[in-house]
């Protein structure tokens, strides 16, 4: 599984990036809600949208890693 | 501050380039799968087989629907069952029609008497087959027509003043969600109505296909919205709608950014011009990658059982697969929403009326 491990490194790097990104989004959202609880719903929907963007970039990398593995 | 912004711009453009190149690589990658040895379980091959388009639709056990193959060649249109392209061991077999056809890596090719691909003749071959994805698309169109026409007829009968009933009460919140959360905030109340039919069409089409893709057995199971051709078609539609409706100030902001020094204008024009194309491309790849990755994830978890060759692995694999399935339900909705929202945002950017005194000298992106 030498070939597989290279793709796994790629997928792992993508996961690190997405983890940092989504962590930042969650931090920002929780801070925002703590300061302004009445805006929680709006913040939450924006948070999900932003998280989807970050996740999408990570998924690009995962797909590339998987296809490269094939 | 400005340095930071410039740096992030640089990062964004470089990453976009990286993504573009990687898709070029992906396109070239012919999904070559490793040679299969007898009795050996190949995870990659199994997973790719499930997310790929196919000429037959597996039902259960050894039963599957053989979908029609429709070919247009220099000798005219020809159609036959895809059953004739495989032998009893499910290996590709030669079918003798106007030409000799054989499936090479899932694609129909013309072969000569020795079974070698006739490249020149294959170039003349147009494959209009009803494949699994096409059949699944038909099913989703039928579902959409039944549901939406029922709701529309109910409105015709009872008007918009009375309380919604049945399918109406299911559809009305979703339509209103698209109008109030997606169209109006991004396009503006005045122009949103004109684009609502388009936005609702892409929203419901993506949503239905995403949900159908999550059903593991017959009416679903095809990977339609995880097919790059399908997402590309949607992205091209968005591209056409955005650019046909773009006003003068949108093009001005692309080719001759107002409120900038002329050297900056020259510098920004090519970047903004590339942006016109990368927007729909990112839409295309986002939907494709999200749905394909979801399918791969579920399939890999199920494959764990076959990798460990013990039924006890399912104690871990099945709960995880169910958990991922739940997340995929959210993703199915989220991706339909994001695609529609970004389409609305691009339309909004293209049709926005600019008040130049309001942000004279401010950078626009």
Summarize the structure.
The complex is a heterodimer of chains A (70) and B (365). Chain A contains 2 helices and no strands.
Distance between the termini of chain B: 16 Å
> What is the strand content of chain A?
under 5%
Within the CATH hierarchy, at the fold level, what is the topology of chain A? Answer: F1FO ATP Synthase
Mean pLDDT over the full residue set of chain A? 82
Shape annotation of chain B: globular
Give the helix proportion of chain B (percent range): 55-70%
Largest interface: A-B, 18 and 26 residues
Q: What would CATH call the architecture of chain A?
A: Up-down Bundle
Q: CATH superfamily name of chain A? A: F1F0 ATP synthase subunit C
Largest sheet of chain A: none
The share of residues in extended strands of chain B comes to 5-15%
The structural domain count of chain A equals: 1
State the shape of chain A.
elongated
CATH class of chain A: Mainly Alpha
Helix and strand pattern of chain B: HHEEEEEEEHEHHHHHHH
| Relative helix content of chain A | over 70%
- Low-confidence runs of chain B: 20-38, 357-365
Number of strands of chain A: 0
Count up the helices of chain B.
10
Detailed description of the structure:
The complex is a heterodimer of chains A (70) and B (365). Chain A is built from two helices and no strands. Chain A has helices at residues 2-35, 40-69. The model of chain A has no long low-confidence stretch (mean pLDDT 82). Chain B is mainly α. Chain B folds into two domains: 12-18 and 132-351, no CATH class; 60-127, no CATH class. Chain B contains ten helices and eight strands. In chain B, the strands form three sheets. A three-stranded antiparallel sheet of chain B has the order 4-3-8, with no helix packed on it. The longest helix of chain B has 47 residues, at 262-308. The two termini of chain B are 16 Å apart. The chains are: A mainly alpha (70), B mainly alpha (365). The interface between A and B is medium-sized, with 18 and 26 residues.
């Amino acid at each position: 599984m030498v070939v597989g491990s290279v793709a796994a490194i790629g997928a792992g790097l993508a996961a690190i990036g997405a983890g940092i990104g989504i962590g930042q989004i969650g931090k920002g959202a929780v801070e925002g809600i703590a300061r302004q609880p009445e805006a929680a719903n709006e913040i939450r929907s924006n948070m999900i949208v932003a998280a989807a963007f970050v996740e999408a970039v990570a998924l690009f990398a995962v797909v590339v890693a998987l296809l490269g593995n094939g | 501050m400005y340095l930071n912004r410039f740096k992030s711009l640089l990062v964004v453009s470089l990453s976009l380039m990286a993504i573009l190149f990687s898709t070029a690589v992906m396109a070239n990658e012919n999904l070559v799968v490793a040679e299969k040895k007898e009795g050996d379980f190949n995870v990659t091959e199994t997973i790719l087989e499930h997310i790929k388009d196919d000429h037959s639709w597996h039902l259960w056990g050894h039963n599957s629907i053989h979908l029609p193959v429709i070919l247009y060649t220099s000798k005219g249109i020809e159609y036959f069952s895809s059953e004739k392209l495989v032998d009893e061991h499910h290996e590709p077999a030669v079918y003798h029609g106007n030409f000799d056809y054989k499936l090479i890596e899932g694609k129909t090719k013309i072969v000569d008497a020795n079974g070698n691909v006739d490249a020149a003749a294959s170039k003349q071959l147009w494959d209009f087959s009803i494949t699994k994805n096409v059949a699944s698309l038909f099913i989703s169109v039928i579902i959409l027509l039944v549901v939406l026409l029922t709701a529309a007829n109910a409105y015709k009968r009872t008007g918009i003043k009375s309380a919604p009933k049945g399918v109406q009460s299911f559809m009305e919140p979703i339509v209103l969600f698209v109008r109030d959360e997606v169209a109006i905030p991004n396009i503006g109340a005045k122009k949103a109505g004109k684009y609502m039919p388009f936005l609702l069409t892409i929203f419901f089409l993506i949503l239905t296909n995403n949900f159908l893709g999550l059903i593991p057995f017959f009416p679903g199971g095809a990977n339609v919205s995880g097919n790059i051709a399908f997402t590309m078609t949607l992205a091209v539609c968005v591209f056409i709608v955005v650019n046909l409706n773009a006003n003068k100030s949108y093009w001005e902001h692309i080719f001759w950014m107002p409120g900038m020094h002329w050297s900056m204008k020259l510098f920004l024009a090519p970047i903004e011009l590339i942006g016109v194309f990368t927007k729909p491309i990112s839409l295309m790849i986002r939907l494709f990658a999200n749905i394909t990755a979801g399918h791969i994830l579920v399939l890999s978890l199920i494959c764990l059982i076959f990798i460990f060759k013990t039924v006890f692995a399912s104690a871990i694999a099945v709960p995880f697969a169910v958990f991922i399935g739940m997340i995929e339900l959210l993703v199915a909705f989220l991706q339909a929403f994001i695609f529609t929202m970004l389409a609305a945002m691009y339309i909004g950017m293209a049709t926005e009326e600019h008040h130049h005194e309001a942000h004279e000298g401010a950078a626009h992106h």
